[in-house]
Amino acid sequence: MRFVKESRIEAPVEAVFAFHERPDAFALLQPPWEHSQIAQPPRSLEVGTIVKVRTRIGPLWVTIVAEHVAYEKNVRFEDVMREGPFAKWHHKHLFLADPAGCLLRDEIDYEPPLGLLGRLFAPLAVEPRLRKMFEYRHQVTRREVMATLAKR
Question: Could you tell me the pTM of the whole model?
């Protein structure tokens, strides 16, 4: 299955990428309604970086372990879920030059848990949650990037 979220941000690609490299970026991008605890924040966006997050899924707390597997400064970084609720999770964070500034694009290829049953319920259970989460993350990115540019 695939989820994609795109936003245009009126800022240079370098500024949008730089926000994601900030030490506080990952924490800022966590939606408050997700009830997540960052157990191991990313030390960088580079290949080999491990991130651990505990999050609630219904009444259960689940630990998610993700590893960064690709990195090109000002172009992209990618992570895959090594442990967690999904059978497959590959997240590409893309930063594309656009006449208006930067096209921020998140592409997630995933397989929900529970096989066919999970695939049947993903449009009702997974995709709305992803839409809400990534709308929030793109809003935070835009806000933080514009605030940084206004200080210059």
Answer: 0.94
